[in-house]
Design a protein that fits this description.
Distance between the termini: 32 Å
Number of strands: 7
CATH topology: Rossmann fold
Structural class: alpha/beta
Catalytic activity: a (3R)-hydroxyacyl-[ACP] + NADP(+) = a 3-oxoacyl-[ACP] + NADPH + H(+)
Bound molecules: nicotinamide-adenine-dinucleotide
Order of helices and strands: EHEHEHEHEHHEHHHE
Enzyme class: oxidoreductase
Shape: globular
Helix content: 40-55%
Family: Belongs to the short-chain dehydrogenases/reductases (SDR) family.
Oligomer: single chain
Pathway: Lipid metabolism; fatty acid biosynthesis
EC number: 1.1.1.100
CATH superfamily: NAD(P)-binding Rossmann-like Domain
Strand order of the largest sheet: 3-2-1-4-5-6-7
Largest sheet: 7 strands, parallel
Strand content: 15-25%
Length: about 240
């Protein structure tokens, strides 16, 4: 990935931070996107610089079409383009259908699915110009299997899978690859709010009987964002300890 430029959305913490650091270790220059947590983004930046890497941070809400454009434009300005786009930003607003508010459904779709579309929409013209590009979307085991209390989140993550497969067919002939990772239960701020009871039932349903770490996702992300996966496109790789078997 030497001298490639990678944009990672939601790079201020969790899986996004681990992916940004891993790509930097492999030689990529990073644009670390964040929505509001500037301190977290600066911490990711500091960690990359400590490794001798190059990075910048950029504030943008990816669910806003124009802010996604500003993010991609910033990458063009700083690093002359976007070679790798990692759509990692995501939120949950869980609830059973009887209690789920319309705005909770809309918001999750807006950030997770529309946000992914927004960034891709603006990055693809840049990649077409360069005649190459790699896109990685972070889906979820919930998008593959469904999950009680997550109809909004599961729909957004299943939507990401359809989007990934369609665009792989659309852009493959233009030397742009696009894949997705479907993580299982990963130890981050997103999952730490779950009750011990829920966590235990998930652990039991996982073949490896343990949770994953952000670095587990980053390993696969680095593979999918490198030439090592040059003949892989349109795929959804489960990194879930054997939850969705
Ligand atoms: P997290 O909550 O720590 O990270 C989510 C990141 O997205 C944060 O950095 C947040 O600031 C950012 N974000 C949210 N809304 C945004 C917006 N509108 N614009 C820009 N950035 C925004 O959780 P995580 O576990 O690190 O999640 C990262 C991705 O992995 C998400 O897409 C999540 O759905 C997915 N995922 C996580 C798990 C898990 O078990 N942790 C499992 C499957 C999928």
């Amino acid at each position: 990935m030497k001298d490639k430029c990678a944009v990672v959305t939601g790079g201020n913490r969790g899986i996004g931070r681990a992916i940004a650091i891993k790509l930097a270790k492999e030689g990529a220059r990073l644009i670390i996107n964040y929505r509001s947590d500037e301190e977290g983004a600066l911490e990711t930046l500091r960690m990359i610089e400590e490794l001798g890497g190059k990075a910048h941070i950029f504030k943008a809400d990816v669910s806003k079409f124009n802010e996604a454009l500003e993010l991609i434009n910033y990458s063009k300005e700083k690093f002359n383009g976007v070679d790798i786009l990692v759509n990692n930003a995501g939120i949950t607003k869980d609830g059973l259908i009887l209690r789920m508010k319309e705005e909770d459904f809309d918001k999750v779709i807006e950030v997770n699915l529309k946000g992914t579309f927004n960034c891709i929409k603006h990055a693809v013209p840049v990649m077409l110009k360069k005649k190459e590009g790699i896109i990685l979307n972070i889906s979820s085991v919930s998008g593959v299997m469904g999950n009680v209390g997550q109809c909004n989140y599961s729909a957004s993550k299943a939507g990401i899978i359809g989007l990934t497969k369609s665009l792989a067919k659309e852009l493959g002939g233009k030397n742009i690859r696009i894949n997705a990772i479907a993580p299982g239960f990963i130890n981050t701020d997103m999952t730490k709010v779950l009750s011990d009871e829920v966590k235990e039932s998930i652990r039991k349903a996982t073949a490896l009987k343990k949770f994953g770490e952000p670095e587990d996702i980053a390993e696969t992300a680095a593979f999918l964002c490198s030439k090592r996966s040059g003949y892989i496109t349109g795929q959804v790789i489960s990194v879930d300890g054997g939850m969705a078997i």
